Amino acid sequence: MEMEKDRIADSMFVRLWTVIRILWKGRMFILKWCGIVLAFSIIYILSIPRGYTSSVVLLPEVSQGGLSGSLGSLASLAGIKMGSGNAEDAILPEFYPKVLSSVPFVLDLKDVSVTMKRKKEEKKLSFYSYVMEHQKRPWWGGFFALFSWEKDEDKDVLLKSGVKDSAEVYRLTKQQYKFVKAVGSMVACQVDKKTDMVTIRVEMQDAYIAAYMANVIKEKLQAYITDYRTSKARNDLAYMEKIAQESKDDYEEAQRKYATFADAYKGLILERYTQEGERLENEMELAYTIYSQAFQQLQLARAKVQERTPVFVTVQPAVVARKASSPKRMVFVFMMGVLSFLASGGWILGRNYIRRSKEAVVMGD
């Protein structure tokens, strides 16, 4: 058994030494192609603009009540995600990435004012202008842009505060479509299914703008979710405010009529005037009761809006990056060097194997 193992080990050593010897003979070929690949790799990676990433980590409030909420807490410990116990929470954290990538949400960012710092100079411009006009591109991007064709009316056209073809259909120009696509590649959102923790990452060529837009996107997402969750409660509040105002007006009108009648017929003891006074007094008391109940419902509606307003905890605020996050130049060049070595070495070994196979066939004949 030991002899068999020694024989196998010797055979593997001989094969490895043979491979090394073949590669050493073809070292000039390998060095040439590795040098060519590395040269092109360096030129390529240096032509790609550097990007800076800023992240914001949020912990949103998810309403879960009763038994289902307790079961959800236990399930999260086991790594199992259960649905929310509150049927009104249709937009759960799992859907936040869809919200951030939606066309209305992205177009809402176009008018955000940003400050671009270049060579000790500051320039304020819209986020749309920064994305479309001030992003560096690789040299080949400008070369291919010379052959692109687009209509003049498509340039620098923006949607005016939500102009649509219909209530649910957006019609984008070519420039707007490019803007939406570009922002989609810059913004990423990830959700931890166990903890519902939301991470918003923004990568741009300007570190300050990346951090600023990460904070802006966080605030707009919070506003969007808050508006959604409180929409029904706010509609109910507006309705109760209308009812309360109308009941107040009715009560004041009934109060005015009763006071006018009491002042005009004060001291009269005729039954007809007494009954009329009692009727007006009853109407005033009824109007007051309705007004009092409407006011109580109004206070409950206001409390409902406050109850439905979600709470967001910012676990990690946006921080201006000090180092570029992409591209990973050293990693890219190293990987291309390894791949070029493997490819050129494989080519030499394959060519040597084919040559030896042909020689073996010729000797067999």
Structure in words:
- The protein has about 375 residues and is an alpha+beta fold.
- It is built from 11 helices and 6 strands.
- The strands form 2 sheets. Strands 4-5-1-6 form a 4-stranded antiparallel beta sheet. A two-stranded antiparallel ribbon has the order 2-3.
- A hairpin with a 6-residue loop joins strand 4 and strand 5.
- Helix 2 runs antiparallel to helix 11 and helix 9 packs antiparallel against helix 10.
- The chain is elongated.
- It starts with a helix and ends with a helix.
Helix and strand succession? Answer: HHEHHHEEHHHEEHHEH
How far apart the termini lie comes to: 38 Å
Structural class: alpha+beta
Put simply, the count of helices is: 11
Give a short account of the largest sheet. 4 strands, antiparallel
Strand content bin = 5-15%
The number of E-state strands comes to 6
Strands ordered across the widest β-sheet = 4-5-1-6
Radius of gyration: 37 Å
Coarse shape: elongated
**Unreliable segments (pLDDT under 50, ≥5 consecutive)?**
65-80, 82-87, 151-163
Q: What percent of residues adopt helix (DSSP H or I)?
A: 55-70%
Mean pLDDT: 82
Task: Lay out the secondary structure.
Elements: H1 2-25, H2 27-47, E1 52-60, H3 66-77, H4 96-101, H5 103-107, E2 113-118, E3 121-126, H6 127-133, H7 139-145, H8 174-186, E4 187-191, E5 198-204, H9 207-264, H10 271-308, E6 312-316, H11 329-364
Antiparallel strand pairs: 1-5, 1-6, 2-3, 4-5
Helix pairs in contact: 2-11, 9-10
Structure characteristics:
365 residues; alpha+beta; 4-stranded antiparallel beta sheet; two-stranded antiparallel sheet; 11 helices; 62% helix; 10% strand; elongated
